[in-house]
Amino acid sequence: MRAARCGEGTGPSAEALRGLPPPKGSARARQAGFSFVSIDLESSRALLERFSVTARLEVRAAIEDLVRAGAPITLHPAETPPEPFESRLLAIERETILLEAGSDARHAHEIARAGPATVVGLLDRLKLQFETTELFVHASGSMLVCPLPRRVARIQRRDAYRVRPGAPRPAQCVLRFADHTQRVYAVLDISATGVAIKLDPSEAPPAIGQRWQHCRIEAPGYPAIPCELEARFLGDSLSGEAAGARLGCQFVRPPPEVQRALQVYVMDVERGRPPPEPGATPACS
Q1: Rounded to an integer, what distance in angstroms lies between the CA atom of residue 144 and that of residue 72?
Q2: Are 25 and 143 in contact (CB under 8 A)?
Q3: Rounded distance, CA 87 to CA 222, Å?
Q4: What is the chain's pLDDT, residue by residue, as a tens digit (285 residues)?
Q5: SS3 labels along 115-176
Q6: d(CA 258, CA 168)
Q7: How many distinct helices (H) and strands (E) make up the chain?
Q8: CB within 8 A of 80, min separation 6: which ones?
Q9: Which residues contact 88 (CB under 8 A, 6 or more apart)?
Q10: Phi and psi dihedrals of 180, rounded to 5?
């Protein structure tokens, strides 16, 4: 069976597509348990430009995040019919993306024949969107194939990007109490507007609305960020996190220099930048 080429531009040949192995992550993606609903595309050009990344590594990283999560995506043809098609990204192979064709093979072939399309996916608190000028039906008939895009828009679904620090940028939050004692907590996630920390399972949770002054956020390679925190949310730990309560806090009236320091750290984690060298000034863009 030959792959059906649709749209304009240069894409992989039918022979290349026939030789692609089944994607390694497809089984996990199929078992991820998502219920599919059509995801609306973002039409504001200004918003898309503002949140687009074009660096090859950043584009690939965004697609890989969708693949690892088995996240739901919707294919929106440039012209209808056909209607939008719900799917998942299964793998990246040889500069192409493999998409799940699902059980409706006829609809998948209609999408491929329609040519240009916009792909929209939901990943945690982000909407990811990119355009493809061509789609192919994989020789197996169970997948669609499109080239890696040149840009991906990562649109905020909240007031600010919330990232999970990890190696090589682990972060901790130091709370200072009224009796002038202090305690160090692991940071679960952080944004320019707030931070979530992990409480010890044996620790009595604070009251919502409680405030702590003279706290700080610490991360290797970065100056300590002073802050005042207010407890806003208390919940259980999320999947993949160590046991313990999850306390969400808001930064209280951070001055401009603290806002900038938080934005720099969050942006560095989001973009995969290494920590600054000792003595260096962190970049802000």
Answers
A1: 15
A2: no
A3: 41
A4: 334 333 333 334 434 443 444 443 333 333 333 334 567 788 888 878 888 999 999 999 999 988 987 888 889 988 877 788 888 899 999 899 999 887 677 888 888 888 889 999 877 667 899 999 888 888 787 889 999 999 999 886 544 567 888 766 689 999 999 898 999 999 998 988 889 999 988 888 898 899 999 999 999 889 999 999 999 888 765 444 455 678 989 999 999 899 889 888 888 887 777 777 655 554 443
A5: CCEEEEEEECCEEEEEEECCCEECCCCCEEEEECCCCEEEEECCCCCCECCCCCCCCEEEEE
A6: 22
A7: 6, 16
A8: none
A9: 29, 30, 32, 34, 66, 70, 71, 72, 73, 99, 100
A10: 75, 10
192 touches 156 (CB < 8 A): no
